[in-house]
Amino acid sequence: MKVRVVEIEPARVAYLRHTGPFGPALGEFWRGVVAPWMQDNGLMGRVTYGVAMDDPANTPPEKCRYDACVEVGHDDAAPPPAALATIPGGRYAVVDYYGPAGGIGEVWHAFYSQGLPEAGLKDRPGPCFERYAADFRADPETGEFACELFIPLDQEEEA
Predict the structure, then answer these.
(1) What is the pLDDT of residue 55?
(2) Rounded distance between C-alpha atoms, residue 142 and residue 50, angstroms
(3) At 36, which CATH number?
(4) CA–CA separation, 50 and 103 (whole Å)
(5) Beta bridge mates, 153
(6) Radius of gyration of the chain from Cα atoms?
């Protein structure tokens, strides 16, 4: 697993929240709720984020919160029923992901349990997230897609 360390600026986002188990339900949420909302509000073609607000390892599945986010301008309002938030800036460990939705959970687990320790890095409190390019596309035949996985890092750690 190739882990890199990056510094990012905060990103202002509008988000819709899914509460419930992670996994296939998140793909359905993006396709059935988030994408139509983005289309209706002229938000397509922007960087998006999937933010896990809870750790599914220690949160009951029905209480897990996930925010589907899209970058908006500094003065933009959140198109209803969305709310506004900020993806925190700072230092992050990042790995690239390419594959089907069903494989991303395993990569997240490996990132935390192997990737960070092997890179000599320590996470800090805060949500981890996936970042999707403005030109995001999933392969129509396989469902495979690309994104980046971000884990917040202690500021004093060195890679």
Answers:
(1) 85
(2) 21
(3) 3.20.80.10
(4) 15
(5) 123
(6) 15
